Q: What sequence folds into this?
């Protein structure tokens, strides 16, 4: 607030934005209603995220880590406008930080410069500098950038992130699945809007330009209530959310992320006149957590591995009979289990040669520019996946193929005929049905010339 920098357009520009200059007198209920009228259910999650941000230090004491709010969608879908609207609770004329053009120090300073407030980071793309991805991951735990303090004692110092981050962009943050698991993931698909929808948006913009910091000041007065009721609300929200998602085996981190906004809203629901209720938000959060969990299961490191293996099989690089076999078995014995695993009924077992598998993963992964893990790391992930049964105790036979794709044969003089040459190996064993259903890949071969059956309903074919 020094007069020395009052007219400066360079110094303290970010701090000057966070100022109570609201000229609007719209009520909390009406402003929230207008936001929901334009942005739908995503706005309810965004509003609850904003409420949780105001009491971030209290929530952080309970959870030790807080999610980023990610809003994904194509241009013109409304993702950035929702973020801008949430920023209106703290300032007018928000200018989001472009994550692509900002330097790492500038980005670190921006997210560490405010406390219990929102910071909007825009234009996320999976091709950004890995250091920026790591910075976003660290922000989840409130950890800022380390640097050497050359002005004082030349010792290492660390900044702290006390803000909550809104991350918007046209690409789903799957470059590092660890970042994706630290997000509350919201999506927009619609790019074309009706005249009525545009009118609602224009009306909201008029109020947004006047600012909504008066609503923030009103909610901040509830801090004593939040401190007194948060633990109880957290426990109830945790039980309620888990009961809705237990059947889907939600990743613990994802469930905890969605719990952040849900519990904060429940804490002060009775103290504010809000146009939506806790039960509505609970349904939205449960569906969002389930959808995000399904998406992460299709884009994590193990899913990427099976995608590469499936591509290799389709290209004829990874061959059925030579590199892997699929056999129905009623029981199997592995090195990892002392006793034989009895399935009771025949189960398709994918038996895959470890060395061939890892070589194919490395070679084809580089060709398709897939983000790969070191061999020992991906092997660890595979061996700890629910589909993995163990390393076969008994050796399995695998054919050898020539350059023309034909099994190599050797003439046996005693029997006066040619016989296929086999190699023995102890393969890794997987539940093929689980892999097929979870990753939507097909590795078994169809023998014969029977035509593929056509679907009766053409609409089911995509």
A:
């Amino acid at each position: 607030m020094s007069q020395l920098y009052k007219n400066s357009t360079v110094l303290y520009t970010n701090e000057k934005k966070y100022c109570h200059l609201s000229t609007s007198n719209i009520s909390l209920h009406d402003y929230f209603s207008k936001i929901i009228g334009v942005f739908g259910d995503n706005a309810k999650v965004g509003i609850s995220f904003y409420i949780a941000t105001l009491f971030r230090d209290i929530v952080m004491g309970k959870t030790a880590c807080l999610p980023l709010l990610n809003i994904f969608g194509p241009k013109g879908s409304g993702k950035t406008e929702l973020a801008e609207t949430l920023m209106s609770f703290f300032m007018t004329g928000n200018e989001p930080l472009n994550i692509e053009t900002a330097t790492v120090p500038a980005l670190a300073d921006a997210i560490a410069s405010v406390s219990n407030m929102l910071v909007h980071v825009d234009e996320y793309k999976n091709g950004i500098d890995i250091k920026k991805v790591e910075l976003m991951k660290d922000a989840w735990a409130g950890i800022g950038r380390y640097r050497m303090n050359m002005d004082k004692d030349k010792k290492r110092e660390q900044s702290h992130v006390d803000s909550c981050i809104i991350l918007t962009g046209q690409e789903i943050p799957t470059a590092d699945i660890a970042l994706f698991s630290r997000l509350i993931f919201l999506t927009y698909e619609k790019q074309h809007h009706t005249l009525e929808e545009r009118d609602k948006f224009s009306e909201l913009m008029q109020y947004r330009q006047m600012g909504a910091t008066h609503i923030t000041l009103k909610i901040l007065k509830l801090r004593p209530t939040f401190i007194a009721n948060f633990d109880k609300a957290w426990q109830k929200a945790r039980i309620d959310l888990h009961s809705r998602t237990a059947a889907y085996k939600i990743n613990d981190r994802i469930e905890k992320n969605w719990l952040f906004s849900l519990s904060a809203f429940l804490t002060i629901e009775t103290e504010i006149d809000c146009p939506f209720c806790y039960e509505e938000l609970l349904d939205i959060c449960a569906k969002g957590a389930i959808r995000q969990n399904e998406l992460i299961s299709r884009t994590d490191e193990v899913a990427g591995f099976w995608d590469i293996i499936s591509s290799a099989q389709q290209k004829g690089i990874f061959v059925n009979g030579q590199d892997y076999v699929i056999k129905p078995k009623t029981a199997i014995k592995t090195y990892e289990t002392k006793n034989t695993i009895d399935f009771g009924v025949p189960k398709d077992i994918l038996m895959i040669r470890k060395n061939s598998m890892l070589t194919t993963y490395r070679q084809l992964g580089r060709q398709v520019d897939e983000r790969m893990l070191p061999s020992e790391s991906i092997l660890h992930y595979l061996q700890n996946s629910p589909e993995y049964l163990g390393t076969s105790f008994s050796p399995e036979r695998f054919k050898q193929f020539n350059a023309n794709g034909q099994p190599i044969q050797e003439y046996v003089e005693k029997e006066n005929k040619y016989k296929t040459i086999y190699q023995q190996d102890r393969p890794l064993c997987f539940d093929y049905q689980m892999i097929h259903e979870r990753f939507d890949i097909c590795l078994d071969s169809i023998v014969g010339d029977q035509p593929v059956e056509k679907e009766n309903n053409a609409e089911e074919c995509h």
DSSP finds 17 helices and 15 strands in the chain. The radius of gyration is 28 Å. Confidence is low (pLDDT under 50) at residues 454-462. The CA atoms of residues 85 and 205 lie 8 Å apart.
